[in-house]
Amino acid sequence: MYLDNFYTSCTLCPRNCQVNRRSGQRGYCGESAELRIAVANIHRGEEPPLTGLGGSGTIFVTGCTLGCAFCQNWQISHSGMGKVVSADECAQICLKLQKAGAENINIVTGSHAIPALVHSITRARELGLTIPILWNSSSYESVHALKQAETMIDVYLPDLKTLDSDFSGRYFNAPDYPATATAAITEMIKQKELRYGPCRAAVRAAEEVKPIDPDWPLVLESGVIIRHLVLPDRLQDTRAVLAWFAEHAKGKALLSLMTQYTPIKSPKNRYARELPNRFVNDKEYDTLQGWLEEFDIEDGFYQELVSDDSWLPDFTRTNPFSSELSVPIWHWSKGFL
After folding, report:
1. Which of 46, 299, 301, 309 is 20 to 30 A away from residue 226, measured at CA?
2. Is the pTM of this model over 0.85?
């Protein structure tokens, strides 16, 4: 199959390592052709049209194409935490999430594993998976690889971290990130128009109580939500991203402005100590609100200020998140829970 050829001389991400992952070689992402997963859970901390009433069925894929110094999922992105699963096993995880009430399947950092994930989702569809597929990524991915996964994906959830190539070169090990990410996001917007539908929990309730309550939330069935994480002391990055969104994506995608930056001193990244050692403050938050008005950006979401790191995930735990945010379904060390 053509997709599998990506693994023979890997060009799935812009690094174009061209290693033979089918023979066990590993490129920058650290992964062979085998699909490895760390955790699957019902997550209630995503944007409202992704969470709905039932939560988002997140699957955290091991490995990553970037090397972000402030990565909050370092245990799985670059420390190798995860377990090999077959296409059938991944399909069963998807079905288990659907049975648990998930509004969608939310694949986190899967850019380096597109062939295996396409096989897995195809198998899950054959076995009865009906909910939308979300592609939750850093946007550091090749347009030609994205096109191979287009028919599998319903909703894109890309980051747009920065448009500063010096910053991305030093702290992501990817000076080409701005050009690559904007090209990938532009392709995503071309592929998917915004479309909403009733959340699954509302549909199930309507079988007993009709009509559907108009106050029940809708969920996104197709479209793009562009995420941007605000960094303290680097609001110029955010302003540039907002300007890009206003010019290229407003009216065609949603914006999610995230203020949850948390200082992380990764033991594996020598540049981590150069990054801000505090949370976003009230003054910066007010500035962000003013810029949203200036650029007339209304379609989207922004977080309230986060003042501690109690929400940070720990993937050594069966439930990496707090019980308020997450219901564990599968864990790399225990299997189904």
Report:
1. 309
2. yes
